[in-house]
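Reviewer comment 2.1 asked that we show a complete input and output for one of the modelled complexes. We chose the pyridoxal-5'-phosphate case, as it is the one discussed in the main text.
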Amino acid sequence: MTRILHRTIAHTYPMAARGEGIYLWDATGKQYIDASGGAAVSCLGHGHPDVLAAMHAQLDKLAYAHTSFFTTEAAEDLASDLVAHAPSGISHVYFVSGGSEAIEAALKLARQYFVEIGEPERRNFIARKQSYHGNTLGALAVGGNAWRRKQFAPLLIDTHHVSPCSEYRGKRADETPRQYAERLAQELEAKIAQLGAKTVIAFIAETVGGATGGCVPPVEGYFKRVREICDRHGILLILDEVMCGMGRTGTLHACEQEGIAPDLMAIAKGLGGGFAPIGAVLVRNTVIDAFAHGSGLFQHGHTYLGHPLACAGALAVQKVIRRDNLLANVRRQSEHLTRRLSERFGNHHHVGDVRGRGLFQAIELVLDRTSKTTFDPKHKLHARIKSQGMARGLMVYPMGGTVDGVHGDHVLLAPPFIVTEGNIDSIVERLGDAVDAAIASLPGAAKTRG
Ligand SMILES: Cc1ncc(COP(=O)(O)O)c(C=O)c1O
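Response of the prediction step:
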């Protein structure tokens, strides 16, 4: 009997025993294609020899030194590497152990920045509905997923949410993408005006919406307008690239494709590729200057900040991506993935949208393509697809609540950057079978409702 409080208590999880390349094996010897990198984590696949060698070498030298006593070569080298390839203006890195911690640190950095520059009246964060920023209380508070927030609502700091940028669900038929972006910009302006611009600390958004919306790219021009509005009001822009960043969309940072740079940016997942828990906040020089000329310290900290083993692993991951020119492979395979998904699902009765960017793509399931109605959430279509996928040796990352936290289902794909065309063909074939089997397993009425 397990003594672990697993994610779902009644579920029996297979025992993961071994990983190599894009494959995982369970303890019975069954092989799975890891087509989602877990949750968009394993960007190099599993067991990469160069990363393992770097981590072994670090372990032989030094496993841990507390950051209130020492800095380490591993952390310094990784920080220098990240700044050298960061969006313009980023000058420093704050290391943590994962995505939620990165968001917590970004929120506190943003608040303290305004205390440092003599604007302590700024207290509001504006975020987007349907976003996911993590499960710690601050991250959950800015997150916009209704289901995740609901039972913890009394514990959450006050935050304010505007509409996400979702062409499939949000753009009206009579609007161009540009007009849609403008409407969203006006909504943000109105929210700022309602709160009082001088009370707003930051606007926070996932550059490409991830787990809860299903790989939702922004429409062209949206983030340029957001950046311009934030600048005009002296509001910080925090980008959450925990899932969509570090190469996943074909450029190191997703915001490069939007032509903007953030004031603070959270990264994690692909930073360490799953070899060790690590996250970071990339910090703009103006924010650092305010701290340096003010109190001189960021009032925060955790025991495992800048863990040398995690930093050595993350640096090795980033070096392999550059050495092997893997972002070019992300872009190349992304086209193949889009093509194969469109062929398999483009005319599928119950797939309303195939979308995404780079090796970060999703299908959205609908009961009816014209009206975009969703399957009854009580049938948990997303969970059925996940188990049908696992039965076929395929790991994908399906989720429910795609539309509003309750309704809608999508399946997210985030294969490793080393994926080949042949791998993608197998992934799409198995996914197609899993989706059809999951829909066939629904009670009769569920397939015709709507
Ligand atoms: C966009 C985004 N932000 C933050 C997080 C939280 O990261 P973690 O689970 O490492 O705490 C996630 C995790 O899925 C995420 O996708």
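The pocket of pyridoxal-5'-phosphate is lined by residues 39, 98-100, 103, 132-134, 206, 210-211, 240, 242-243, 268 (CB under 6 Å). We note this here for comparison with the apo prediction described in Section 3.2.
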